[in-house]
């Protein structure tokens, strides 16, 4: 790929990954200012949007840094910028993934009727519980990935190597300079990024699907009530879609990491594309699930269309004169 192609590729990734999240963030904050309240869904939407934007930007800067200096992983010590980019990528992806999990749990508790008194009590206080969970996830993430600032090349890089033979140089895997069990830490991160959020997303999504299917079948003879359940059906579809986007992104990132660990060559464009796809799709799905954002998007579209028609009509009138 040529240099111009590289630039166009990265610009496209930035637009796809950032634009939708900026739109959601701006108009969600605008809605909160108007209503002077912060609803749970809007809080989660803000958290996802902010972290998706930072995630895409951090990934972009990391890929550009590696593109400018392919041997940056051989530098000892690692530049602070690289450590910061890795920290932001890990922390923001963690927060965004868990925010989707809390959103799935929130919708499930709000939509599904439970007979257990424990779940009924949870339903009455679900907004406060989820708000606290989202904020705690942000704080926990900032602390969990702090050891990323101690990443550095292995001690073997202190040995002399032939600078003229850089093409055959293999940089060692990063290691932590602080005293810690790296294997246990890596295992904990993997569990917190994949299996544990999935134990929240999948059961809640499946429970909503079962509930809404039964609810729709029971009310199929009452057209008015079925239409009233359309909003819940949309929420269910979007929640399941968010889980699918999350799992697809994890599979791509996992494949990238495995190939790198094996020692095979794979471009960092894959990593940038995965996070851009995740950020773009989540922003699109969250916009579709929010009536206020859909109305704003449609009003902008109609405004642009009206402006275009107005400019065309002015051109025609000028030509006639």
Automatic annotation (TrEMBL):
Its main location: membrane. Keywords: G-protein coupled receptor, Membrane, Receptor, Sensory transduction, Taste, Transducer, Transmembrane, Transmembrane helix. Pfam families: TAS2R (PF05296). GO terms for cellular component: membrane. The chain crosses the membrane at residues 6-29, 41-66, 86-109, 129-149, 184-210, 231-262, 268-288. Signal peptide: none annotated. One of its GO terms (molecular function) is bitter taste receptor activity. InterPro entries: TAS2R. It is a multi-pass membrane protein. It is found in: Membrane. The keyword Oxidoreductase does not apply. This is Taste receptor type 2. It comes from Carassius auratus (Goldfish). The gene is LOC113107701.
């Amino acid at each position: 790929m040529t240099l111009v192609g590289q630039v166009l590729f990265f610009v496209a990734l930035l637009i796809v990954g950032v634009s939708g999240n900026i739109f959601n963030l701006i108009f969600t904050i605008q809605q909160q200012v108007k209503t002077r309240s912060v609803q749970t869904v809007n809080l989660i939407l803000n958290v996802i949007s902010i972290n998706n934007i930072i995630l895409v930007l951090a990934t972009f800067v990391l890929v550009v840094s590696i593109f400018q200096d392919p041997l940056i992983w051989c530098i000892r010590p690692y530049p602070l910028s690289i450590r910061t980019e890795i920290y932001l990528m890990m922390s923001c992806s963690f927060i965004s993934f868990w925010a989707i999990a809390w959103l799935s749990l929130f919708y499930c508790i709000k939509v599904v009727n439970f007979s257990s008194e424990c779940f009924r009590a949870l339903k009455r206080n679900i907004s406060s519980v989820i708000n606290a969970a989202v904020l705690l996830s942000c704080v926990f993430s900032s602390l969990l990935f702090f050891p990323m600032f101690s990443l550095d090349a292995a001690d073997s890089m202190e040995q002399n190597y032939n600078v003229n033979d850089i093409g055959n140089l293999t940089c060692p895997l990063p290691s932590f300079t602080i005293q810690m069990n790296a294997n246990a830490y890596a295992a904990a991160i993997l569990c917190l990024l994949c299996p544990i959020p999935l134990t929240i997303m999948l059961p809640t999504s499946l429970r909503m699907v079962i509930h809404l299917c039964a609810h729709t079948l029971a009310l199929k003879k009452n057209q008015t009530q079925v239409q009233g359940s359309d909003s819940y059906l949309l929420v269910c579809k979007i929640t399941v879609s968010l889980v699918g986007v999350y799992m697809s992104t994890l599979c791509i990132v996992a494949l990238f990491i495995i190939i790198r660990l094996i020692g095979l060559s794979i471009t960092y464009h894959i990593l940038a594309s995965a996070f851009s796809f995740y950020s773009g799709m989540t922003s699109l799905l969250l916009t579709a699930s929010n009536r206020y954002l859909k109305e704003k998007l449609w009003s902008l579209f109609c405004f642009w269309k009206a402006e275009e028609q107005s400019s065309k009509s002015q051109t025609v009138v000028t030509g006639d004169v």
